[in-house]
Specification:
The complex is a heterodimer of chains A (321) and B (358). Chain A is of the alpha+beta class. Chain A contains 15 helices and 12 strands. Chain A has helices spanning 10-19, 126-135, 139-147, 156-171, 176-187, 193-196, 202-213, 215-219, 224-231, 235-246, 250-267, 269-274, 280-286, 292-303, 307-313, and strands spanning 3-7, 25-28, 36-42, 46-53, 57-60, 67-75, 84-86, 89-91, 95-97, 110-113, 117-125, 150-152. Chain A has a 5-stranded antiparallel β-sheet with strand order 1-3-4-11-6, with helices on both faces. In chain A, strands 2-5-10-7-8 form a 5-stranded antiparallel β-sheet, sandwiched between helices. Chain A has a two-stranded antiparallel ribbon with strand order 9-12. In chain A, a hairpin with a 2-residue loop joins strand 7 (84-86) and strand 8 (89-91). In chain A, helix 3 (139-147) packs across helix 5 and helix 4 runs antiparallel to helix 5 (176-187). With 358 residues, chain B is an alpha+beta fold. Chain B folds into 2 domains: 19-229; 231-345, Homeodomain-like (Arc Repressor Mutant, subunit A, Orthogonal Bundle), CATH 1.10.10. The chains are: A alpha+beta (321), B alpha+beta (358). Chains A and B meet through helix 10, helix 11 and helix 14 of A and helix 4 and helix 8 of B.
Chain lengths: 321, 358
Amino acid sequence: MKTTFEFRDPLEISEELAKLGQLTKITQLDGGNGIYTMQAATDNKVSLAEISANKTLLYEGWGNGVTIDFNWITPKIDIQDTFGYCDGFKMAKNSLAGFGTINSVPGNAWGKYSSECSSTGCMIDKKLLLELLKNCKAYDGLERLTSDQGVYSNNNALGQLKRLARKEVSSGIQTPEKYFDLVIACLEEPMSEQNSHEQKNIGQLREIINLAHNQKSMESPLSLLEVCKYINTSQASLYRVCQEFFGMGIIELMTHIRLEESRRMMLNKEARQKLKLYSIRDIAIKYGFKHQGRYARRYYTAFGELPSQTIEKSRRYKLPF
Amino acid sequence: MSRKKHRIEKISRKILRRKRSRNYVFCDTLEMEEFCKAHFEEYHSTSSFGCNVTQLSTGILETQTTCSPIQDVHLEIFKSNQTLLYEEEANTKSVSFCWLDSLATKDEEVLTTISGHQMTRNSIAGFNRINKTGGNIWDIVGANEELCCMSLKWNKLQERINKLNAFNAYARLEECIGIDSDDHASTQLKKLFHDHFNGQPSKKPNSFYDLAIIFLDNEDNESTFDAHRCESTDLIEDMVKLIHEDRAGMPPITLEEITEYLNSNRDSLNTTCRRIFNMDVIELVRRIRLEQTRKAFLTPHSSTGLKEFTKKRTALYYGFKNWKKFEHSYSSYYGETPSQTIDRSNRNIYSFSAWKGE
């Protein structure tokens, strides 16, 4: 199966990912019109998805408990830099990450990728992979998989994996077993200095992302003091983390996510009816915007259209609830 | 090589000379708006800018603005003999810091409110960034209170915050609408500003950035005096915006419509409005409408004859059905009749854009 799409709404990528068994919420972190492309291929045991966007995207909820995700990025410009974060793991040219999905309560993994790279997710069957790892006595790999978020791989296996995926994401998956072998080879990578560097803030970042998407905290937005209390951190260190990972303040980030979520609701006619959200004001209040006026203005700045125009658009969509 | 350097120095000296302080005097709000638009469009280049000024007190207006920008820092002193309501679309490129220059009066008598923060002689306000996600800003500038404004570039400020690890400052920009403090940094900042306008022009934009950051980052400022955004600040922000909206061809917004739109009730809205503007909502709407009518009379884009011919229709458009009553209150507020306004309106044509934003 081969598909290439061009999208203008993060929601559409979410939908496509849902077809691969990934339930995600995607927020565009820069203002302005976004254009995204996605290519996907799927097989019984392996699925591939490559996404490229002209804006920074934040993914929440990647991971479903059945598969383990191995994510990497392909820079559009050839520099040694950080292009994003997968579950708090720095994504550079040689990163392979997303292991957090192994013990995934759906929705506790997240990713953020800049517009300077495309991101690829390779989702492989968890049960089979664990079996294979045990069979070939790859205990180092097993240990990595269960205790780390990612790995910087400097051997050939990652390069091979990337080339294979690049080819098969458009031609269709022909040799699913190769993915398992290559992933295991990457996981068995000997400990390098780069890898032994401990990743900080992993737990805290997950909490931030989780809190920001929590329905209750969206409905009555938390003040900065409350956020600090909930995450159990000081104001200054919270802002240091948010600046480093998201390039914006926590309140701004949470507002962005609420806006995007309200948009998702507006585009979903069925869900609206089920939740008895009949007007734009009902939706605005549901996502913590008390005054419709301010809501509409913020909405317009973020998406370049008014809530009423989005409602109009929702006729085009048919989304599962 | 050295010749090139010499040339650069010469050019930069030229820029410095070109950017010496300038004074502007305005006698009506339209003139002031046009000036602000031209001025800020140059300064923020890519972001669009719109503003509305309404005179809240009675009498003939005269404002004084002194601008003295240096690189990446816009510095301005503003004073008006009337109390003004200033409303603008928030721009995402800059952060402003406003304070009042040494007041002779007591704190309780200060009228000026900046972005919802009731000013005292020790306040600095206007820097709240959460507003900027698509909001508008409103200020009240009290009559004869001298307002000092410093506008910093957001991307540069953000960069320096990161460099200085002053993450408390970042938190403040998001959650805090104003700080009352006379700590060392704020005293220094005010002194630097004061000296700049009084014969010792500053050539170091970074000192303004750093002092602002140190001031924001100071944790002691928080524990004692700190103002967070509250419901009523948001409510007024929305109301001010709503009242200013032009509803193409529709009659002026009613109190019922305002309360419905803002999801609020009449009493609480009136209470908040009285506390801040010293008048109830309908009176505020009337004052803004009156000012809009005045601006329509003043606009240089239509001939005096046509404006005279359509003056009653203009008043009607802004909700004044009874011309006699309108003319009477107009004259008592502005010290001239509508016809007098129209008559003098096209004499000075404004062309501020030619001033290149200085």
